[in-house]
Specification:
kinase, binds magnesium ion, Mannitol-specific EII, Chain A, PTrfase/Anion_transptr, binds phosphoenolpyruvate, magnesium, 43% helix, Histidine-containing Protein, Chain: A, EC 2.7.3.9, alpha/beta
Amino acid sequence: MLELANEQIAMGQVAVDKASALRLLADRLVADGLVAEGYLDGLQAREAQGSTFLGQGIAIPHGTPQTRDLVFATGVRLLQFPDGVDWGDGQIVYLAIGIAARSDEHLRLLQLLTRALGETDLAEALRRASSADALLKLLQGAPRELELDAQLISLNLPADDFDELAWRGARLLQRAGCVDSGFAALLQQAEPLPLGEGLWWLHSEREVLQPGLAFVTPQQPLRHRDQPLNGLFCLASLGAAHQALLERLCQVLIEGRGQTLYQATSSRDVLQVLGGEVPADWPSVRVMLANPHGLHARPAKVLAQLAKGFDGEIRIRVTDSGQAGVSVKSLSRLLSLGARRGQELELIAEPSIAADALPVLLAAIEQGLGEDVEPLPSTPELAPQPVPETLQAPLPGTQVQGVGAAPGIASGPAHVRVEREIDYPLRGESCAQERARLRAALAAVNDELQALVQRSDKAIAEIFVTHQEMLADPALTDEVDQRLTQGESAAAAWMTVIEAAASQQEALRDALLAERAADLRDVGRRVLAQLCGVTEQAEPQQPYVLVMAEVGPSDVARLDPQRVAGIVTAHGGATAHSAIVARALGIPAVVGAGAAILLLEPGTALLLDGQRGKVSVAPPADELQRALAERDQREQRLQAAWSQRHAPAVTRDGHALEVFANIGDSSGIDKVVEQGAEGVGLLRTELIFMAHPQVPDVATQEAEYRRVLDGLQGRPLVVRTLDVGGDKPLPYWPIAAEDNPFLGVRGVRLTLQRPQVMEDQLRALLQAADDRPLRIMFPMVGQMHEWRAAKAMVERLRQDIPVADLQVGIMIEVPSAALLAPQLAREVDFFSIGTNDLTQYTLAIDRGHSSLSAQADGLHPAVLQLIDMTVRAAHAEGKWVGVCGELAADPQAVSVLLGLAVDELSVSPRSIAEVKALVRQADYSTACALAREALQQDSAEAVRALVERY
Ligand code: PEP
Ligand code: MG
């Protein structure tokens, strides 16, 4: 992944011509180990094919496919030439960005740069920049484009006064992700500006994440400060992004056309007047992009040139991106699409030129825009494979083997929740009829949700209340209504609007917004089912076993543990986050049971063993009885374990092991101690960061850490520094999207790039410690230098904030760290093995992968070997080792980990009593023998079978 950073920049370079500039760049790339000698030929050859000048004084020299093999590592180096270098055709370059990349990674860089390319005076500013920092700010800090689309417009709102209208505008901005929650209050304090014709303007620059403009109108005529109030613009202002729009608005007002805005009956009309989006009836064509490296600078340039030959507006968008179209004539806008091979593009042209322009552009794209293109594979090859028809539901009396994800035995009728395709007509009977049908469906779904609200716990009820709000959201219903007037059926209009809104949320690549997208689809589907008369299978009255393809964390969060006795999924693995949540809720679960399980008849009796990962289909009465007896015994065992939860975990032959708790914040810390924890072995601090709308400051963090230490009353606290990035970004941290987030900038790699955040967190921790036992560890360490950089920061801060009982260590989650354990052990105070990630990286299986993660079993001998190496290395240096991944609470794994001489197990608080009891029942010498044998096995299944035999 190409990112821009200070150390890649060399300021004040001099080159007499382009050839010497290229030579300087090539030398730099070679010296930094990114490419081999000879890459210069590639840079020159590429320039000979076409200049890499981008505009705004920037060029992006890179190699050709022939020199790709000379690239050792993906990266960029930036050279500033204050005197300028002639790049041909009189184009002067002040900044050359040399790229070493094997494939199309530079598209991402282009996307980053296009923000800067939109700026008017950037070339001059780049020339004058006096430091690498300043230069970087110019490239990254250019204002973002103003958001203005249908979701930011809401007409005819039932508002009583100006304040209420302003509040509605602020809410639209907040929902679109433009502003934080404090924005609404700030807007109320801003001074309103009358624009004339009853239109008003309010703006604030604070709490703004992304510039955006909302427009709201009241249902009935209102007055404000003795003037009419027909409509209100609310601007979330950031830089000068709104300038162009403001000019258009002024023009509209000068021409006396204000009523076209406040009398508009649809958001599209407003957008048309303000030029935010193209009208729906403009002709369009779609085409698949086949260029091997996507729409990069060269083909984009060809396309823009071609489009400039037509006198009128032409837009382009990536159809599945949920983004509005951009002008085809703007090279920077084209690059900002980041379009890749295999994506579908839509070209939209104004009617007067559409017939001429669209066929020409379409043909040019099909022919590769000057590049050789290989045809794309036909669609069926790309489409997800349907469930093979030969699949059959498991027969009564059979057992299905899955992966035990949450221990416990459960039985009950199967409640199979599978999303089936619902067909619906695209065109409606009449607008009035479709409106009435939609109204009835919305009302019925609202009642359904109300019933769910009433019978659910508070946290779950809140989710359904949010769904009710979505049903009533005028931003959605306005849009749907507009489509109904164009003749669409209620179902088609509803689903199009829901899908567009959901994709828009997802496109922002933010975990919270992605959840909102899931909620939108959930609501969307309920309404569709109502409209089409499809009754979703009713939940059984008695506690049931939920059967689903996959259960996302948000699905689990809304489960009612009183009604769901157990969970079986077709896909997924034991360390998927949903399995972790199931365990926390104490619902027995088997995951990865295979797609055939979804074919079970609803109501089929199921018996599941969440420990062994077995599902029995319509089990014979005696088997059921045995299992239920076992469940009762387990209950008794757990009760006995519970009564001994404060006793230490010492084996029968006197070997002691500590049992600690995994927690996410300070809430419930007293309960954790009450559950028998001898300390906290993993405080996942990212949950604290996620609970705040912005990075919590030192004082806030210190208070939180203090609460945990207070609650522990002298017991040790092991804190993991912030572990975000990759697939779990923080909503307020813009982290570049990555192709392989699990292999990307996450954990310590990310915090080392944001030293201030890391320093603040460490400072808060050290300040909170007083003389209590504090252990700090860094996640995802894979290299010695990462550990040393992190440790150095702690040491520096320690000079100012002395802590009497501090240990500093790392998590072992990456195989390289386990393999490097002998060297690391000399420097760290302890290791804590994160088996969830260690298993994922050792077996090369994404821990949440829908079908493979079932095989990501931490008892795999390959993982056990790494644990063994880690423990030996640590003990050789007199250091201790904990295990804090989910494996530590797996009853079959406890004796193996004990036998591998692990010193501490850190588990979810619910499992503490059970794990302690398991240790107390074990013999250390037997466990050691078991562990040695386990290391010799050839699969996780074999290890599990071995454990059962012992
Ligand atoms: C692990 O990877 O095992 C771990 C404990 O960290 P997390 O599950 O939070 O990634
Ligand atoms: Mg981890």
